[in-house]
Amino acid sequence: MAGAPFDDRDGLIWQDGKLIPWRDATLHVLSHALHYASAVFEGVRVYNGKVFKLTEHSQRLIDSGEMLGMKIPYTVEELDAATLETVKANNIVDGYIRPVAWRGSEMMGVSAQQTSIHVAIATWEWPSYFSPEMRKKGIRLTQSKWRRPAPDTAPVHAKAAGLYMICTMSKHSAEDKGYDDSLFLNWKGQIAEATGANIFLLMPDGKLHTPTPDCFLNGITRQTVIGLAKENGYEVVEREIELEELADAQEVFVTGTAAEVTPVGEIDQYKFTPGKVCETLIEAYEKAVGKTA
Ligand code: PMP
After folding, report:
1. Cβ–ligand 1 contact at 197 (below 6 Å)
2. Listed residue (117, 101, 124) closest to 42, CA to CA
3. Domains identified in the chain, total number
4. Residues 111-156: pLDDT tens digits?
């Protein structure tokens, strides 16, 4: 169930410098962003009233904008402050934050040189992306028919709206077939990531292997989990990983702000049993974000 629609909720949204009533945070149908995907966004989490890695997310929003030629009209410090103000105003203790920046409606065509850049920040209570049952057994993925594009075909390191067109299509296709999510290969046919999360494999050498993020987001969670894995005595190898190597993987999990650390039980014909590594890193991540003491 989708719950209350996102345009019809109580609360306050920060838009272009100030908090306004939730339902008033609108934009015109002739906004450039809607037609040409000139938008970048973030996904951030609040745990126990504390925003996890806020500055990293604010910085990534600015960097994503820059990669699309959009200068976000706020500094990292201003975005951090605006985010904290929004969380406080909405009394969010455990929730999700969605900052977004987009080109406005001054021009309607491919060229958008004179469009203004807008920023909004919304937040809501949000417990878990995948249900606890799904997380225990491991989620089920199926390969997408789409691939992560080559780094010279799109601004692949930006968290840009346009790059999610194939994510929504892939996720829908997976859900229609009874799966939870989709696995993208990269343009060379090697393992890339899920539709909103990075992927890790525990291989027979006892090391964690994860694809080099050369054509997709080097997730903030991915970087956190690499650190936690090392702290817990696991070596992490970043390299190109072929799809067939899934046959040797002992444990598989995905990482993301929304997904946190979520075990994978199945990727098409390949099956995995979440074990010690998943358990250790779920626990370490929950501690790191302040979910548990
Ligand atoms: N890849 C994609 C496509 C994503 O949408 C996300 C979520 N932002 C990630 C990876 C993981 O990034 P992060 O850990 O920074 O949330």
Report:
1. yes
2. 101
3. 2
4. 999 999 999 999 999 876 667 777 778 999 999 999 999 999 999 9
Name the domain boundary from 66, 98, 125: 125
Protein residue with its CA nearest to atom 10 in ligand 1: 197
CA of residue 181 to ligand 1 center, whole Å? 14
Average per-residue pLDDT for the chain? 96
Q: Say whether both 19 and 121 belong to one domain.
A: yes
41, part of any domain: yes
Pairing assessment for the beta strands 181-186 and 139-148 based on DSSP bridges: parallel
Give the end of a domain, one of 125, 142, 169.
Answer: 125
Contact 216 CB / ligand 1 (< 6 Å): yes
Give the domain extent around 45. Answer: 12-125
Please count the other Cβ atoms lying within 10 Å of the Cβ belonging to residue 5. Answer: 7
Per-residue DSSP letters for 28-97?
Answer: -TT-HHHHH--EEE--EEEETTEETTHHHHHHHHHHHHHHTT---SS-HHHHHHHHHHHHHHTT-SSEEE
What positions carry a catalytic annotation? 159
Rounded mean pLDDT, 211-227: 98
Domain co-membership, 172 together with 256: yes
The Cβ of residue 266 has, within 10 Å, a number of other Cβ atoms equal to 17
Please name the residue whose Cα sits nearest to atom 2 of ligand 1: 196
pTM for this predicted structure = 0.96
Write the DSSP string, 232-268.
Answer: TT--EEEE--BGGGGGG-SEEEEEETTTEEEEEEEET
Whether 25 is in the pocket of ligand 1, judged by its Cβ within 6 Å, is no
Which tokens in the block code for residue 71? 């200068």
